[in-house]
Amino acid sequence: MTALTGDGSDGWDVFYKARALKKQGHPIIELTIGEHDIRTHMDILAAMGRSARGGHTGYAAVPGTEGLRAAVARRIEAQSGVRTTEDNILITPGGQSALFAAHMAVLNPGDVALYCDPYYATYPGTLRGTGAVDRAIPCDPAHDFQPRATYLEAAAKGARSLLVNSPNNPTGVVYDRATWQAIAKTCITHDLWLISDEVYDTQVWQGKHISPRSLPDMQERTLVIGSMSKSHAMTGSRIGWICGPVPVIEYLTNFATHTTYGVPGFIQDAAEFALSQGQELEDEVAAPFRRRRRIALDLLTQQNLVRAVPCSGAMYLMLDMRATGLSGEAFAHALLDAHQIAVMPGESFGQAAAGHIRVAMTVADDQFSEALAVLLSFAAEICENKRRF
Questions:
Q1: How far apart are CA 243 and CA 124, in angstroms?
Q2: How far apart are CA 18 and CA 30, in angstroms?
Q3: Residue 352, phi-psi category: left (phi > 0), alpha (psi -120 to 50), beta (remainder)
Q4: I need a labelling partner for 25 at 20 to 30 A (CA). Which of 204, 227, 352, 378 fits?
Q5: Sheet containing 29-31: order of strands
Q6: Which Pfam families match (predicted)?
């Protein structure tokens, strides 16, 4: 446990500082974490209540209810075109639990586990928690943070698994087909397991979401992580899944029996109801982020100082602040102090995003527009002061 995170600052000091100021009564605008500004749809909560009042409050089947597993399988098959049944699905208490379980399935202590930098904050600790040795693959801003074939090849020697995330948190990038082909080639050449974190698969603004399980020769070496958190604003319900080869799912079910012992039945019933509402509900949950992306792009085109990494998916903007001469962390602290707007430094997500900030599009449209305009004006002010002095 003591080895999950490294020594020193984890880059989240701005977040902790903003939360402390907010607790003291300061009007902080939080553009930090990926939490919807809408709550779980009342119809989903009504379905949850009906199930609980109907008695589904005891132990549920550890791999998940048949209904939910079948619903998840249908959704994955429809999206990917790959034949999928409930036997390919394990229901988990959220995507984070699924990430840990999936890596426990494919790694032995001491194995090398790969992930891409920038990365979602828990990735390195999740890999270390399995007893693996974590190894980051740098994804540089010059190539829009997409992993490059040469870097994949160099990192893969002696490794056992590769963790990828598209649409990507923190960058908002959607991997293109060439990137996926390079990833697949690396996995096949070096006999790697691929863990594909696809929790943002309903938030694609440009391009197309590709699940690597659909690529040639990848189905039997890929574990897909999914969740209801982002697609249906069910973050607090803690409901996710792993999709993979049947033998692996059987072992993972045994693992779940000895760790989580399943997910509450009434929450699973609510998730099954939510999935039954189809793409219409998913589009409704995603719509605010699509609007705010448009707002952001309009504001960014009115200046030429701050560059946005192509925001093709997810609920985030990754902004290049290097023209200000400040690190992402320094700019984020200065912005919070001067204007009570909290954003995440790129350094919070690895060294590849140094000099960048991540902006979560998670406040109302008018407040988001105003906050981003202030941010851009503040960056221009910093540059002007630097030129003057």
A1: 22
A2: 8
A3: alpha
A4: 378
A5: 29-31, 341-345, 356-360, 316-320, 307-308
A6: Aminotran_1_2
- 112-117 and 133-138: which strand pairing? parallel
Handedness of CA 143, 202, 301, 334 (dihedral sign): negative
135: exposed, middle or buried (Cβ count in 10 Å: 0-12, 13-18, 19+): middle
- Provide the 10 A C-beta neighbour count for residue 298: 11
Q: What is the pLDDT of residues 53-101, one digit of tens each?
A: 999 999 999 999 999 999 999 999 999 999 999 999 999 999 999 999 9
Q: What gap in Å lies between CA 188 and CA 172, rounded to an integer?
A: 27
* Amino acid, res. 46: A
For 17-51, letters b (16+ CB in 10 Å) and e give: bbbebeeeeeebbbbbbbebbeebbeebeebbeeb
Report d(CA 44, CA 229) in Å as an integer.
Answer: 13
Residue type (1 letter), 341: I
- For the stretch 69-80, pLDDT in tens is 999 999 999 999
Tokens linked to 130: 């399995």
170 and 31 Cβ atoms separated by less than 8 Å: no
Task: For residues 342 and 31, give the distance between their C-alpha atoms in angstroms, rounded to a whole number.
Answer: 6
DSSP string, 200-257: TTT-BSSS----GGGSTT-GGGEEEEEESHHHHT-GGG--EEEE--HHHHHHHHHHHH
Q: Which domains does the chain have, with CATH numbers?
A: 13-31+280-380 (3.90.1150.10), 42-277 (3.40.640.10)
Average of pLDDT values for 257-272?
A: 98
